[in-house]
Amino acid sequence: MNHKMKVFFFFLFTVCVLYMGVREVNYSNYQIVENGTKEVITYQIHKDGTELNILGENLYIDNSTIESIKDTITNLIPKNK
Predict the structure, then answer these.
(1) pLDDT of 54-79, one tens digit each?
(2) What are the residue ranges spanned by the domains of the chain?
(3) pTM (2 d.p.)
């Protein structure tokens, strides 16, 4: 798999996780992939944002950023008339 495809799938996965946060689905701790005893990708959705842990690296995305990404994606999709 070439680098562009990896980046695309990672972006797609991130958008899906952010969408789940926008829907305000409250999972306490959802484990996506488990590799042996090490959690590869986990996330927690809080009232004020989403926390991603990917291979031990933490990334916190607040709701204003999620809304901004949602608005950008919504504006890119053509509206039916």
Answers:
(1) 777 888 888 888 788 888 888 887 77
(2) 3-76
(3) 0.39
Which long-range contacts (C-beta less than 8 Å, at least 24 apart) are formed by 15-24? 15/69, 15/73, 17/43, 17/50, 17/52, 18/50, 18/61, 18/66, 18/69, 18/70, 19/70, 20/45, 21/45, 21/49, 21/50, 21/61, 21/63, 21/66, 22/66, 22/67, 22/70
SS3 annotation, 49-72 = EEEEEECCEEEEEEHHHHHHHHHH
Token pair of 42 as six digits: 């986990």
